[in-house]
Write a structure and sequence with these properties.
Keywords: 4Fe-4S, Iron, Iron-sulfur, Lyase, Magnesium, Metal-binding, S-adenosyl-L-methionine. InterPro entries: 7-CO-7-deazaguanine_synth-like (IPR024924), Aldolase_TIM (IPR013785), rSAM (IPR007197), rSAM_sf (IPR058240). This protein is of the alpha/beta class. The protein has one domain: TIM Barrel. The strands form two sheets. A nine-stranded mixed β-sheet has the order 5-3-4-6-7-8-9-10-11. Helix 4 packs across helix 5. The structure holds S-adenosylmethionine (SAM), ligand 2KA, iron/sulfur cluster and magnesium ion. The site of S-adenosylmethionine has 18 residues, from strand 7 and strand 9. The site of S-adenosylmethionine (SAM) has 18 residues, from strand 7 and strand 9.
């Protein structure tokens, strides 16, 4: 690792580099911009541990190459047709250098989306804050822990909702609230979180800013769940979002 960067226990870094798990060109698969050709920059390291995390090697067992911001920007520019960049992870906002990258991309005229769990307030230009607050159904209990025996349960549970960070993101940026739905019981908690955010913000959060996304990392898993989640969206008046990349490419890396 270069001498100008430091790492803490979440994998958070400071310095002119970012830990990059993967960088690839694809179609935005989720949310209001689904279908838009975009370059994805996936940082490694996360402050949460969802049992279902579809990016296991950025959270439970992080792997990455340390890249300078110059190298990242150059690699993005290789994809000449793309004018949208999606910064994701892991949790990209745990890294101070994510803000510098977003400033540079803004200066270059890119539209930037940040995929975030909503627990950290950035000080950076972002065109779309794609916030995915984590429900209790994401918590890695001993029965659902993909790696250990529930060692992350308490920390995840305490950290997964931070109302100041969540409302700050909504007030500062154009945003969408994208909830991963594992079953009908999740809707009670989604409504509770929405009530609290709506009370804490000055921004009008419309029901079409609220997206329900089926949990699932493979086509087979989504085949089992997507219709039930679509029905829940209709019943409650929220927007449904597909996982277009899974429908198109299943769980292939770099998509
Ligand atoms: C890997 S996360 C990275 C960004 C950030 N850490 C977050 O959770 O929002 C990217 C997106 O994938 C979603 N996601 C992760 N695992 C999933 C799964 N098994 N099924 C559906 N969505 C999932 C997250 O909720 C988030 O919207
Ligand atoms: N195609 C595609 N769209 C995405 N939208 C959000 C993603 C993410 O992992 O944050 C993602 C992803 O991994 N692939
Ligand atoms: S917050 Fe995002 S990256 Fe972190 S474990 Fe959950 S889904 Fe994975
Ligand atoms: Mg993904």
């Amino acid at each position: 690792m270069p001498v100008n960067s430091r790492t803490d226990s979440d994998g958070a870094t400071e310095g002119e580099t970012l830990p990059i798990n993967e960088l690839f060109y694809s179609l935005q698969g989720e949310g209001k911009l689904a279908g838009v050709p975009s370059v994805f920059v996936r940082t490694s390291g996360c402050n949460l541990r969802c049992w279902f995390c579809d990016s296991y090697h950025t959270s439970w067992e992080p792997t990455h190459a340390q890249m300078t911001l110059d190298e990242i920007v150059e690699e993005i520019q290789v994809h000449e047709k793309a004018d949208h960049v999606v910064l994701t992870g892991g949790e990209p906002l745990i890294h101070t250098e994510s803000a510098t990258l977003l400033e540079r991309l803004n200066e270059l005229g890119y539209h930037t989306t940040v995929e975030t769990n909503g627990t950290i307030q950035p000080g950076a230009p972002i065109d779309l804050a794609s916030i995915s607050p984590k429900l209790s159904s994401s918590t890695p209990t001993p029965e659902r822990d993909p790696k250990g025996e529930g060692e992350w349960e308490d920390r995840h549970e305490e950290s997964r909702i931070d109302m100041d960070a969540l409302s700050g993101l909504v007030d500062r940026y154009e945003s969408q609230l994208k909830f991963v739905v594992t079953g009908p019981d999740d809707l009670v908690e989604i409504e509770q979180i929405l009530d609290r955010v709506r009370q804490a913000t000055e921004t009008n959060i419309t029901d079409s800013d609220v997206l329900l996304m089926p949990e699932g990392t493979t086509r087979d898993e989504l085949d089992e769940r997507r219709n039930a989640v679509a029905e829940l969206a209709m019943e409650h008046g929220y927007r449904y979002t597909p996982r277009l990349h899974v429908d198109l490419w299943n769980d292939a890396p770099g998509t």
